[in-house]
Design brief:
Strand content: 15-25%
Oligomer: single chain
Shape: globular
Length: about 240
């Protein structure tokens, strides 16, 4: 019987595994080039967003098809004080940054394969999936509504994963629902390597990407970014595994 390590070594297009009562699915993201950042003309652009620049991701990686669910989080971290019966399928959205790092560390121990958060570059590359529009689904708020739960349609609550249209690479909820922390935070984009760029890595904070159910459309753009706070409302987790 093939192990998870065997699947990774073979370059399988998807990975799947189970811990306790929770199942995981990850999608293989192939290497490639993309434009990271947002043009000055993009509506809603903030001054702290990155200026457009081409980068290359030289190594494939596996990314969670969907955001970590409550069931998955509890399978690794144990019962949570804010648990609600019947909410197992909802995306987990109560993480602090250090919680996200600890979750990855503990999951790594369970499956005996290193698990981490995506870098900012990996996250935006995977989110855009070959597109350069504000949302991977298009340029208008109507396009966002097809792909994301945000302040305009979420009815004031987080939702189960994959109820909205995935991007071209099969990833669900990369925009909206819960914001996703990255392993790094880019402080000096002009000093980044053009290949596999990584910003400042700290155990205290990273970059939060994608926006959440409480955010307006401009804050759910593929290029929007903010630094994580100790407990940012709507902060979830999306995992990455490197071959």
């Amino acid at each position: 019987m093939a192990t998870l390590r065997d699947e990774i070594k073979s370059g399988a297009p998807e990975l799947s595994f189970r811990v306790g009562a929770a199942d995981w699915r990850l999608v293989k993201i192939s290497a490639g080039s993309f434009t990271m950042g947002t043009p000055a003309s993009e509506p809603g652009r903030e001054s702290w967003e990155l200026a457009p620049r081409r980068f290359r991701i030289t190594k494939p990686f596996y990314m969670g098809k969907y955001e970590t669910t409550n069931a998955q989080y509890r399978a690794i971290m144990g019962p949570q004080p804010h648990s609600t019966p019947g909410d197992e399928a909802l995306s987990f959205g109560q993480a602090r940054y250090r919680d996200a790092l600890e979750f990855c560390s503990r999951l790594s121990e369970h499956i005996e394969v290193p698990v981490t958060l995506p870098t900012e570059a990996q996250w935006e590359y995977a989110c855009r999936a070959g597109t350069e529009t504000p949302y991977y689904s298009g340029s208008t708020e109507a396009d966002l509504q097809r792909a994301a739960w945000y302040a305009g349609n979420a009815a004031g609550t987080v939702h189960p994963s994959c109820e909205k249209e995935p991007n071209r690479w099969g990833l669900c909820d990369m925009l909206g629902n819960v914001a996703e922390p990255c392993l790094d935070y880019i402080l000096a984009p002009d000093k980044l390597s053009e290949t596999d760029p990584v910003g400042r890595v700290s155990p205290e904070y990273g970059c939060a990407r994608g926006g959440s159910w409480i955010d307006t459309a401009p804050h759910c753009r593929a290029g929007y970014r903010i630094r994580t706070q100790d407990r940012l409302a709507g902060l979830g987790i999306r995992i990455v595994i490197h071959p």
